[in-house]
Amino acid sequence: MPGIVLVRHGQANFGGDDYDVLSEVGMRQAALAREALDERGIAPSVVISGSLRRQRGTAAAWTDAPIVDPRWDEYSSDDVLRAHGDPTTSLERPGDSRVFQAMLDVALTDWIAAGVDSPAAVSFPTFTGHVEAALGELAAGLGSGETALVATSGGVIAAVVVAVLGLPPDRFVGFNRVTVNAAFTKLVIGRSGTTLVSFNEHAHLDRAALVTYR
Length: 214
Fold this sequence. Notes:
This protein is α/β, with parallel strands linked by helices. The chain has helices spanning 24-39, 53-59, 77-84, 97-114, 124-141, 154-165, 172-178, 203-206, and strands at residues 3-8, 46-49, 67-68, 147-152, 184-190, 193-201. The chain has a single domain (3-73, 125-206), classed as Rossmann fold (3-Layer(aba) Sandwich), CATH 3.40.50.1240. The two termini are 33 Å apart.
């Protein structure tokens, strides 16, 4: 049965000059993720990454030449905050982490509720449409026994979970909030479609005391 392993990128440079790079912790998390899959005997037949540097940096734990597909890119929190929250707050200027998360959750909720009428450059339906199209294309192209690994981001993983489980769109916010850096979310593809078998596995990070959310 074909399978897909979604790996959230390692810790990025939250509060730094450029968020979109892996921190030293993030690079170690990516290496631990690779080790964990190796221990399970999971050797991906294809490695895919979004186009963001933190995603490609995570995929580099498996290959220097992943297939890059921008449909696996994260939503722009700056775009969402400009349209539905505080435009002076960003991943590079977050202030207090908990306050930032609370502000982002409110902005995301408004972004989802606005649908195609959102003033954001990319609406929530457009974002999730790209993710679902990428997932469907990948699932359809896998052969029996093949496993694809996708290095992506928390919002993308949340969108996949909501879509596969058929949940209301507003459930996206809760899944997005708790996704751990370099954690695994696993899907299998069968005759009945794509099924979620695990979400946010991170025991490999617990053992090393390297659980982070940014």
